[in-house]
Amino acid sequence: MKSYSIAFIAMCALCISPAAVMAGGGATFTISGGGVTVQGTGSADFGIDMDSPSDIEGFVIAVSFDDSLVAVTDVSTAGTVTESSNAELVVPEILSGGFTLGCVLDAAAPFDGQTIAAGSGLRLMNFTAQSVVVLDQADPNEVTGFAFTDGTFNNPPLSNIVVSGGLSIGASNGLSLNDDLGALSIAPPPPATLTIENGVADASGNGSARILMENAGETQGFVLSVTHPAADLTLTGIDLTGSETEATGAEFVVVDVYANGGTVGVVLDFEFPFDGQTIGAGSNLHIANYNYSDTVEIYIEGEAAPADQIAALTFEDSAFGSPPLNNVVVTGGLSINPDLNDGNFSTPPVALPAEDTELWVEADFDGNGNSAYLGETGDLCFYYADEDDNIQGFTMTLCYDCNLEIGSAWDYNGSIVEEVGVEYLAVQVDSDDTDGDGCELIVAILLDALPPFDGQTLPQTADLNEGRLLIGCLPVTVGMGAPCETDLLIEWCNDINGTGSVNLYNNAVINFNSIQNFTRNDGSVFVVPVPVFQRGDCNSDDKVDLADSATMLANQFNGLDILCADACDSNDDGQLNMADSVYLLNWLFKFGPVPSAPGPFNDGADPTEDDLPACAGDDEGC
User: Fold this and answer.
1) What CATH code is carried by the domain that includes residue 119?
2) Based on CB atoms within 10 Å of each CB, which residue in 126, 258, 426, 432 is the most buried?
């Protein structure tokens, strides 16, 4: 083809005579199709039209363009007057920054003398120009054009000419070159958009968040980079199941999963024979799935439902990979930074029907229920009821107020557990209120844990007279720093580790199955004021004197009411009688022994255990 073009150039270099100017003069080349705007890497079609007063035997067209902005991808005579005139020699060439096309209508035997007949608006050739830049959304449009250029392209350099009557006419002797209409405006691409569709976990805590795309052009590939809070969620994988990407037949897919997110890179057409598959333009195009797992919070039907656990899913550039990856959409061979819409993944709690198993935790202080003074020690006891199941064991996990001091010495206290025979017991008491997880109590009981494995279980309670049965007790003491007249809570709670590293939860073992959906009743200790008094102050006037001896005798023989029996027990023998009056008189007037603590001068609690009723006067403290 090169030899033909050189021959053609030689033919067109004939001397120009005045007759030739008259024959071919007045011809015009015009670049048509301009004034259009393309977005991103879009393309537009242009043509070269001719007006000529005489028949044309051949022509040369040479056009320049800015190859930093556009590329000419096709130069042809298809569908033109050149083709319909049966041109026998057509030589197109696309060069750096320009293109040429030479044509001889009659170039081969038998030289029939075909020509392009005179006329106006004759389309000689077509070419396609494609943008090679992707502008940011904030950038102004780039405007470029195409110019007829003589003596620049090809070797030897070609100039724009028409051949008429065997002579060539160029711009210097009659050919008009009109390239004013060849402008092309390049605009930023319509922004592609990536959206994380909110995902919802199923009852097992597993689910997916779909990635959706909107793109005005055909997508050749993409990169996704999505993060999540590592403490709240686990990314189990990324796949293309059910997506447009899968349907298109993506040939290159790379997935990386990290503790706090993951990336996926996709090239749709990566392998021979390079069929050019793409995802067509559209909106809400499902392109990938991010699959997550979370711990489902269980609650029992009838209880207040916990709120959904919601974790943020965020498109984040440069978070993963080396070199760092960004979220991009590939269109026309170029990467476009898309608009990014974040989403989330929610895990609704799951309601389970309650089993009829029921547990209680209750404190008792010497028959006074859960009311206790500062420093008082009582029993923290556990009970169960179940009308139709035989229980093989329990894991009991509780959180308690750190103003309570719970001991680890388990006492079966004649319980049904002791009667049946228990073979495994573990107690953990985490009393450290500075370790970040408060104070925790874990008790594990398994009745049949040793050979010969006789299968002992706790009995059903339906056939028993009591509505519930005792499991066992731990000692509990009210700390001296506890606030007065306050409930110190003891609550059933899950996912605690006590003094170990394994998170445990409340669990009943029934028929070798773990059961968590049963009723648990919280407990508390109510801190009551400590009765204080002065020993001998029987009339409760805050002093000890002869009137108190008279009050003691009046109480014993005339039924006079008193407020504090302990205060009237001046000899501290745990009884109220005439001896208390004698003891007090002896101290007051005959230098007898001082009444024992708390004594006649200072308010205080009774250090002696007895059966006298507690003081009901105003002298109380915590």
Assistant:
1) 2.60.40.680
2) 126
Enclosing H/E stretch for 589? helix 578-589
24 with 109, same domain: the answer is: yes
Quote the radius of gyration of the chain (alpha carbons, Å).
Answer: 49
- The reply to whether 49 and 141 lie within a common domain is yes
Same domain, 476 and 550: no
Identify the H or E element spanning 73: strand 70-76
Number of domains in the chain: 4
DSSP class of 454: -
Alpha carbon distances (Å) from 435 to 253, 405, 446, 499:
46, 16, 29, 10
Range of the domain at 544: 530-621
CA angle 15-20-24, nearest 5°? 125
Same domain, 360 and 493: yes
What is the tens place of the pLDDT at every residue in 375-425? 889 999 999 999 889 999 999 999 999 999 999 999 998 999 999 999 999
Alpha carbon distance 100, 104 (integer Å): 14
Contact 211/321 with Cβ under 8 angstroms? no
Question: Which has more pLDDT, 466 or 130?
Answer: 130
d(CA 247, CA 288): 11
Confidence of residue 136 (pLDDT cuts 50, 70, 90): confident
The mean pLDDT of 479-507, rounded to a whole number, is 92
Angle at the Cα of 77 from the Cα atoms of 75 and 79, rounded to 5 degrees: 125
Which H, E and C letters describe 397-419, residue by residue? Answer: EEEECCCEEECCCCECCCCHHHH
> Do 71 and 219 reside in the same domain of the chain?
no
pLDDT of residue 301: 75
Report how far residue 493's alpha carbon sits from residue 235's, in angstroms, rounded to the nearest whole number: 27
**Residue 83 phi/psi, 5° resolution?**
-70, -45
The SS3 assignment for 2 reads helix
Among 31, 46, 29, CA closest to 128: 46
Q: Model's pTM, two decimal places? A: 0.45
Contact 86, 118 (CB under 8 A): no
DSSP 528-574: -PEE-B-TT-TT-SSS-SHHHHHHHHHHHHH----S-HHHH-TT-SS
User: Which residues 6+ apart lie within 8 Å of 452 measured at CB?
Assistant: none
